Every structure is written in structure tokens, then in C-alpha cells.
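User: Please fill in residues for this 313-position structure.
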């Protein structure tokens, strides 16, 4: 095995296509195909089953790929440690976050990070919580900025807590039950029996999100299925619908805005989640990665300095 050959095979498996893999590797389709055929001749068995336009690993191919990925991960981890101890302050961080709040977080902290570590590059992945778990398990991302619900972490991951926030029920101000919130509900977050909203319209987050799992548990415990207008992956879309007095929805507490024409409740039992940096157990964190996580925690707690990265030391 040589590292170039290993990367070729892994990329073919990821793309499930010789053509797409060749484009990603900046080589010709013919050259990549020849490398694959050469390796299969050496091993005496096919590594991929050619199905129409797809390349599917055979049983032998999956065994070979497992070893390939382990070798590539050893190489990546070794380079991380060497960069760290040599104080080169260089290298690559593969990070995952959500398309909305995660993207906003990264854009707010990037300048601070880049001023301190200008040679460190990023490989960015965007996805929902469940997608990011798979990215971490497959070693596609080193760190994922995501959430875990109601204090329930998963044993296959390690977490660094950033901030805990409530999940609240946002209700249009014109809704008949809005009066139950009283004044300043954005501060008091009064409790409501969700069964009082049995006949109300709701918008739910998509099934790929943690907040969807949590809201479904609330309805299940309350003993009814809500009337759902539609589902959305966009928190902004969901809030806009509540703002337009169309429906009720569960939203993260960080989106509470006292200026909006809506009131806010918590439900019984209260639900919350914890923003965190998630990784595989035992992951070696370089100084730049630790600094990135520190900045993310400051941003989550609204403690980033007004200007200059020096204030975030």
C-alpha cells in the first residue's frame, strides 16, 4: 500500500464513481481506472462491483477500505501532533456545523482565529445534528459544533460543553392562549400545558434535527398528534411563520426576541439542549483546535471581545 493508492480507493468509495473521484483527485478518469485495475490485479480480487454508473465496494473492498481509512487517520493524527509540538501553527481543521446558527457562529469567530493562526486552513462541512454524528464517526470531520438534548450525551462521542439553553414554545401574539403568557414572557418563560394547544396549527423542524425529536416526545407525553402545516429545516422560516401569526412552533431559546409579535412558553417537563463541541473519545486537540473551541464558547455566551483577537486570549 502507498498513500496515493490508498487515497484513490477511498475517494472512489466516497464518490461511488470513477469519473467523480477522478475530478476530485485532479486526474484523468483513465489514469484512475488504471490504478484501480492494477491494484485489483495485485490483490487477485475485485474491490468494487460495477453497477451501471455506481462503484459499490465488494466484501474484499470493504475490508481493504477499512484498513485504508485507518492508515489515513493515523497519518492525519500524526501530522496534527507534529504540527502542534513543532509550534508551526499550521495544518488543517475539519469542522462541521449547522447551516444557520453554526454558520453564523463560525463567521463571527473566524477573524479572531485567523489573526492568531493565519496558517491554519479549514475544511468545512454543514449538516444537521444527526448528519454531523455520522461525519464524526466516519472521521470526515474532526470537530462538530452541535447539540445534545436534555443532558443525554451519547457514549460513542466526547463533548465539550459550550452553553445550555431552553427549547421554548413560540406562540403568535394573536393566539387565544397567548394571554396566558402574561407580560415579559421572553424573560419569565411561563409554563403551559401543551394540551391547551391541541387544536392549534404547528410547524415542526425536519426529522433530521434534534429539536424535532424533542418536540415529538412532548406531544407523545401529552397524548395527541399536532396539526402540522409543514416541516422545515430552516429555523428562520419557522420563526417567520410564527411572526406572521400563522402557527405555533418550538424554537431554541437563543432565538427569543422581545420585539417580535409572539409570546414564549416552556412546557412540562421542561426541555433544553446543550451546545457543544463534539468529537471522538480520545481525540487529540491541537492548540489551534482548543482555541477554536474556546472562541465558540465565548461566542455562545456572548462574551467575544468587541475588537481584536488579543481580547480572546
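Assistant: Residues filled in for all 313 positions:
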Amino acid at each position: 500500500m502507498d498513500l496515493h493508492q490508498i487515497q484513490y480507493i477511498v475517494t472512489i468509495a466516497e464518490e461511488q464513481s470513477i469519473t467523480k473521484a477522478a475530478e476530485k483527485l485532479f486526474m484523468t478518469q483513465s489514469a484512475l481506472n488504471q490504478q484501480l485495475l492494477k491494484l485489483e490485479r495485485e490483490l487477485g480480487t475485485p474491490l468494487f462491483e460495477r453497477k451501471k454508473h455506481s462503484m459499490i465496494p465488494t466484501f474484499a473492498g470493504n475490508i481493504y477500505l477499512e484498513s485504508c481509512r485507518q492508515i489515513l487517520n493515523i497519518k492525519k493524527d500524526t501530522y496534527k501532533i507534529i504540527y502542534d509540538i513543532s509550534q508551526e501553527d499550521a495544518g488543517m481543521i475539519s469542522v462541521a456545523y449547522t447551516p444557520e446558527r453554526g454558520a453564523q457562529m463560525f463567521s463571527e469567530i473566524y477573524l479572531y482565529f485567523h489573526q492568531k493562526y493565519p496558517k491554519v486552513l479549514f475544511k468545512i462541512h454543514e449538516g444537521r445534528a444527526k448528519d454531523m454524528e455520522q461525519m464524526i464517526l466516519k472521521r470526515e470531520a474532526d470537530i462538530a459544533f452541535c447539540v445534545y438534548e436534555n443532558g443525554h450525551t451519547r457514549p460513542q462521542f466526547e463533548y465539550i460543553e459550550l452553553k445550555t439553553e431552553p427549547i421554548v414554545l413560540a406562540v403568535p401574539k394573536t393566539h387565544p392562549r397567548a394571554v396566558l403568557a402574561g407580560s415579559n414572557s421572553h424573560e419569565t418563560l411561563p409554563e403551559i400545558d401543551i394540551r391547551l394547544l391541541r387544536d392549534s396549527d404547528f410547524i415542526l423542524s425536519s426529522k433530521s434535527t434534534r429539536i424535532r425529536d424533542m418536540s415529538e416526545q412532548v406531544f407523545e407525553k401529552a397524548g395527541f398528534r399536532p396539526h402540522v402545516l409543514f416541516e422545515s429545516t430552516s429555523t428562520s422560516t419557522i420563526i417567520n411563520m410564527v411572526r406572521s401569526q400563522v402557527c405555533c412552533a418550538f424554537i431554541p431559546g437563543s432565538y427569543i426576541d422581545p420585539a417580535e409579535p409572539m409570546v414564549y412558553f416552556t412546557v412540562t417537563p421542561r426541555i433544553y439542549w446543550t451546545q457543544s463541541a463534539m468529537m471522538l473519545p480520545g481525540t487529540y486537540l491541537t492548540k489551534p483546535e482548543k482555541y477554536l473551541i474556546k472562541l465558540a464558547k465565548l461566542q455562545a455566551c456572548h462574551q467575544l471581545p468587541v475588537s481584536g483577537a488579543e481580547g480572546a486570549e
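For context: The first helix runs from residue 3 to 15.
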